[in-house]
Amino acid sequence: MAGVRVRELRKEFPGGDPPVVAIEDISFTVDGQEFVSVVGPSGCGKSTLLNILSGIDTATRGQVDITQNGRPARLGYVFQSARLLPWRSVLDNLLFVQPARGPADRERCRRYLDMVRLGHTAGQYPGQLSGGMQQRVGIARAFSIEPDLLLMDEPFSHLDAITARSLRRELHDLWQETRKTVLFVTHDVSEAVELSTRILMLAPGGRLVADLPVRLPFPRDPAADEVALARADLLRRFESLDLLAG
Ligand SMILES: Nc1ncnc2c1ncn2[C@@H]1O[C@H](COP(=O)(O)OP(=O)(O)OP(=O)(O)O)[C@@H](O)[C@H]1O
Ligand SMILES: [Mg+2]
Question: Which domains does the chain have, with CATH numbers?
Fold first, then answer.
């Protein structure tokens, strides 16, 4: 379980006049086994935030600390598309990101492939798998390095509704089994309500406009009254953001 501290974080992209402000001075902290969704309309800075947290991009200003018991935390990243190496087998895609590649590492990679029910594809190549299966390999790969913090950027948005639903369940089970801290970007309000213990809402211009705990027991049935109510509340907030954006 990781601790995330973000202080007065700002990201500007130069080039325009004035420069694009992708993240406007946001602060938040996440502690322990939380599943935090980051929601907001397209272009409000969700991917930029994840990229800065992961170190893929740098902030213009502000501070990010991601620690695990006082030392720097280990991060896993699941991208919007699986980004597998097509010339390596499924198992080798997982092995490739391991710090070491001994028998124990191979065994661990196999275990995470089994957890997403793809153990039988270990020797196949990504091109032989469907998009949903590739995305599951991407999820297994992120879990296989046993990260303290898992960053996920709209991992199911390219998938059909049925596949997305079963992957959501799988992800949720993995999260409960492994007790990771998860930061999960989505623009799908139902997905956020179904999965999260907490929801951060970004508005256009990269402003953090809401930090909402979701205190409903798991598993959450999307058809249950209290889940529907939470979804309606979030949707209302979401729609008012679009009005603000104009
Ligand atoms: N490399 C870049 N150079 C210039 N501007 C950028 C760059 N990356 C992102 N931006 C701008 O920063 C803002 C935030 O982009 P970002 O990709 O973080 O949004 P997002 O919330 O992830 O959107 P989406 O839901 O469509 O993925 C946008 O205005 C975008 O045009
Ligand atoms: Mg994005």
Answer: 1-74+148-223+239-246 (3.40.50.300), 84-146 (no CATH)
Is 207 close to ligand 1, i.e. is its CB under 6 Å away? no
DSSP state of 128: G
Residue 222 neighbours by CB under 8 Å, 6+ apart: 190, 194, 228, 231
At residue 1, the pLDDT reads 66
What is the biggest distance separating any 2 CA atoms in the chain, rounded to whole angstroms?
56
Distance 43 CA to ligand 1 centre (A): 5
Q: Is the CB of 83 inside a 6 Å radius of any atom of ligand 1?
A: no
Instruction: Please tell me the distance from the alpha carbon of residue 139 to that of residue 149, in angstroms, as a whole number.
Output: 13
Test site for ligand 1: of 46, 53, 200, 209, most ligand atoms within 8 A of the Cβ: 46
Give pLDDT tens digits for 15-68: 888 889 999 999 999 998 899 999 999 999 999 999 999 999 999 999 999 999
Do 199 and 52 form a contact (C-beta atoms < 8 A)? no
